[in-house]
Amino acid sequence: MAKELVTGNFAAGRALALAGEANRNARGCCAGAYPITPQTEIIEYLCANKFSKGRVIAVESEHSAMGVCIGAALGGGRSFTASSANGLAYMVENVLAAGYYRLPIVMIAVNRTLGPPWNIWVDQGDSLMLRDAPWLQFYCDSHQDLVDTILLSFRVAEDAQIMLPAMVAMDGFVTSHTQMVVDLPEQDQVDAYLPECNVPHRLRHDHPTTVGGLTWPRETEHHRIEIQQAMERVPEVLDVAIAEFEEIFGRKPAGTLVADQTKDADTVIVACNTMARTLKNVITERRSKGERIGMIRAKMFRPFPRGDFAAAIGSAKRVGVLDRNHSPGSGGIFWQEIATTLRGRSDILLKDYLVGLGGGDVTPTVINEIIDDLVARKEASDPVWKEVAA
Length: 390
Hints:
390 residues, alpha/beta, Rossmann fold, seven-stranded mixed β-sheet
């Protein structure tokens, strides 16, 4: 492996290219390509890459980009793409189709605010609008985490026990355009880690089939149950994939979540992506002053690891959730999931903080103010809008 100073977009493009090339002795790879800020550099990297057995197909829209991925995956190829914000919204029909077809496509979602009004900065409303789609969802806090999670996603999505697409999310600009030193894998390592992609229900000349035909209510019900059962198997498959990743690459990626100093904590803060990195520094500082405070970095959103969250929160009496997203008429989306997870814990004060929407900087000062507010509370209330300075 070689350590390089690269942007998040470069790291994502390299990881996708390595994964695609690793399938050269099987049915190759294919990417549907359409640019949108702040994802464009990923597509540029893929278009410039020379695959031994694969193609990047430039199309006229995001809807078509996912359509290309669907066609490639139905042909048995390793398939991937990337998008952001309204691009994700435009491809929703095909995003859902890819999941219901049980196709192991991997997509990078570079989180950006949905418009109008138009805003190109980070906000998780784009990927989280797809929370009810049959896709795995992972959220990355760093460039290294991004590279590792992309490779993990191919491994889990293509597992015969899963066969579902996976979305890997990173913060627009904060991750996509900044540079960090990343341990980039070599092709032979990726070859050893990713088995040849085998889509059991791919289209075959020797056994013609129809895809997407009409079905009856009972068959649809069974189809949805099978998807749920596949989701329930994800944590176990992910654990195996992580263990083998560590053997080949010499480091252990994060799994469903990362708990930090929660065992004796009376207050726990939940965050994801780059907010979690800032939160970790705040927690370390406040711990040094004797405060019993811990944090959880949320990594896997779908399937939502309720058991892992409940265990990590443990005996804490106050839980705050930092949400860089908003479900109108309800509140933060991660908070909703945590609330469902803790529905039997009447002893916990659970509080939602909507922060950094539209790309506002979530600084240590902002996080300290949130923690001070949470610690002083005697009871929960509606989600708090924590505005950040312009």
